[in-house]
Structures are given as structure tokens and as C-alpha cells.
């Protein structure tokens, strides 16, 4: 009997602890959307000729600015998020050849408890990143995919508005080199903050 009481007390205490450390004050399932802007920096890589049909050389990429559209569904800090991004045309080490980067990202993320209107974010995603090359009357596309890992910090702006600053490391399966993203995202909707009145 003593063991049963001990296990019941332990289980009850654990449940109370988990509930107070979950995203306390959050609502149920909610939809959010947003816009993002930032920079993408592909590392120097050898793009296989079979990916583009034209390119097989080692290429150095200039960093590029990108914009994003974001759509997500979240509950108690967990979120399923979809992002589509498009970058500007910038140069490469190939004479007269520019590139832009188009990416689609589907991932699952977690946002920690908000304290002092701030929280942290961790996310894992599957990402398709297509390099579109153009210049000298030639166009080619290198379609790549891989896994992305994101860490970030969020700030409560209004009751149902948030701003996030994210760093993403995209591990590219096709080129064996990484792509780095730094983005600022502004989100509307989603879980409203239920603490002090903003």
C-alpha cells in the first residue's frame, strides 16, 4: 500500500509539474501565418552536372536576400509549419552566371514558455531547395533536398502577433554542402498570450 501511495504521489506531482511547464495559458489548436525576410548563404559547392545538365564546376555563391511566406498550425507550443521562400538573383564565380534560390520547407517545431514576452524556438524540417542558374542566354536548375535545423528567439509584439529571429542550417543531401539562412519573421494569429494585458 505504501508503494502504491508513493507511485500515485509521484505520478500526480509529475503531471502537475508537466502542466505548469507546458505552454501555460495557451489556447487549443490555432492557425497562424506570416511573412519573413532575411539572407541565404550557400557554401561553395560542386554542383553535379547531372543535376543541371550544364554545370559541373566548383561554384562560389554570393549571399542573397530572400523573402518568405509562412503558414502554420500549433497547439501547446508544438507547431507544424510550411514555408515557401524566394531569393533575389545574385552572382556566382562562373562568368556571367547568376543564381536564385527557391525553397519549400515542411517542419515540426516547438516554442518554449513565454517569459517576459520572449520565448525560444527549435524546429526540424524537410527542405527542397532549387538553384536556378541564368546568364549568357543559358538557364539551368539544380534541384536539391535535405534536412534543416532551426533555432530562434521570439518576441511577443501584440496579443496575437509575434516576431521571430531564426538561424537555419540546411544539410543538403545532393551537394554535400550546407546552406545557411538568417531570417526575421513576423507572425499573425496562433496562440494568444494569456498572461498580463499587453
Word description of this protein:
The protein is mainly beta and 198 residues long. It has a single domain (25-189), classed as Beta Barrel (Porin), CATH 2.40.160. 12% of the residues lie in helices and 60% in strands. The protein contains two helices and eleven strands. The protein has helices at 2-21, 49-52; strands at 30-42, 45-46, 58-59, 64-75, 78-87, 90-91, 98-111, 118-135, 138-158, 161-172, 178-189. The strands form two sheets. It has an eight-stranded antiparallel barrel. A two-stranded antiparallel sheet has the order 2-3. A hairpin with a 6-residue loop joins strand 6 (90-91) and strand 7. The longest helix is centred in the first third of the chain and has 20 residues, at 2-21. The radius of gyration is 21 Å and the shape is elongated. It starts with a helix and ends in a 9-residue tail after the last strand. The mean pLDDT is 81.
Question: Under CATH, the topology is which?
Answer: Porin
Low-confidence segments: none
Distance between the termini: 50 Å
Overall mean pLDDT stands at: 81
Strands of the largest sheet, in order across it?
A: 1-4-5-7-8-9-10-11
Percent strand equals over 45%
What is the share of helical residues?
Answer: 10-25%
Please state the structural category.
mainly beta
CATH class assignment: Mainly Beta
By CATH, the architecture is named Beta Barrel
Q: What would you report as the Rg, rounded to the nearest angstrom?
A: 21 Å
Number of strands: 11
Coarse morphology? elongated
Number of helices: 2
The run of helices and strands is: HEEHEEEEEEEEE
What count of domains describes the coordinates? Answer: 1
* Biggest sheet record: 8 strands, antiparallel, barrel
